[in-house]
Amino acid sequence: MAQMKKLPILFCSALVVPALFLAFAVPVPIDGAAPVFELRPQSVAKACGTVSVAAASDLTFAMSEIAAQFRKETGCTIRLSLGSSGNFLTQIENGAPFDVFFSADIAHPKKLEAEGLADPGSTYLYAVGKIVLWTRNDSHLDASREFEVLRDPAVKKIAIANPAHAPYGRAAEEALRKSGIYDAVKDRLVLGENISQAAQFVESGNAQVGILALSLAVSPEMKDKGRYWIVPENLHSPIEQGAVVVRSATNPQGARQLLEFIRRPVTSALLERYGFVLPEKRPAREKP
């Protein structure tokens, strides 16, 4: 593998995301808030150019594997930015130079289509996410107690993504409200800029409990560090995750090629391994 040269990286938050979330790629500085990573082809394949991808941070680990497989087959250089879906929506509406947007909901891609900022008909529902209540292994807290564990006096802080612009944060807040425990815990909520930062808060011990994406809880970096309980889907709206080709894409051919790659069975199997539910495999009662 070619040597990776570390470069400075810009963050929108004073809290630095730990190396476990950044280890798969080469950091590259870019104007704006989101960390950017450039994944370079390992073999001499016919290059299709650079595909600039904005991806919700619940895809941190899954997308790193997808990008590695994609570049081996196509020779494409993947320029990957990870962050909150709502922030990416705003950035694209203001002309950010992305080719493809992988959101943690489907509403944002549909909004871009409606605004004429995405290729008509290109929105694709690629997965349905899940949220979990997560605690560290060295904690005495029992995740199997479900949301009742949040009443434990030892729980001083509960990490979730910011509901203002992160779909996983909205799902967490909705689940807390529907379970009837929100008012009891709202003053102890700490908000991550995105779901990866919320995971960092609880993984580092700065929060005792987190409501996180299952895709992060089962990732190689976190699966052996904590315990989790999957929040029932009837407590929140479905986390339907959509991708779309940005209308102003500089590499529309590469963008469409990537979306076709996402549809392949091997890629679907990878998403399932990270805890995502494939739309075609959802129970009939959950389908729209």
Distance between the termini: 44 Å
Mean pLDDT: 85
CATH superfamily of the largest domain: Periplasmic binding protein-like II
Radius of gyration: 18 Å
The level-1 CATH class of the largest domain: Alpha Beta
Helix/sheet category: alpha/beta
Whole-number tally of structural domains: 2
Strand percentage: 15-25%
Helix content: 25-40%
Given as residue ranges, the uncertain stretches (5+ residues, pLDDT < 50) are 1-45
Give me the CATH architecture of the largest domain, please: 3-Layer(aba) Sandwich
Strand order across the largest sheet: 1-2-4-3-5-12-6
What is the string of helix and strand elements?
A: EEEHEHEHEEEHHEHEHEEHH
Topology, number of strands: 12
Which outline best applies?
globular
Largest sheet: 7 strands, mixed
How many helices in DSSP terms?
Answer: 9
Quaternary class: single chain
CATH topology of the largest domain: D-Maltodextrin-Binding Protein, domain 2
Characterise this structure.
With 288 residues, the chain is of the alpha/beta class. The chain has two domains: 19-128 and 239-286, D-Maltodextrin-Binding Protein, domain 2 (3-Layer(aba) Sandwich), CATH 3.40.190.10; 130-235, D-Maltodextrin-Binding Protein, domain 2, CATH 3.40.190. 28% of the residues lie in helices and 21% in strands. The protein has helices at residues 60-74, 85-93, 107-114, 167-178, 182-185, 195-203, 214-217, 252-262, 265-273; strands spanning 26-27, 36-39, 50-56, 77-83, 100-102, 124-129, 131-136, 158-161, 189-192, 209-213, 226-230, 239-245. A seven-stranded mixed sheet has the order 1-2-4-3-5-12-6, sandwiched between helices. The longest helix is centred in the first third of the chain and has 15 residues, at 60-74. The protein is globular and about 55 Å long. The N and C termini lie far apart (44 Å).
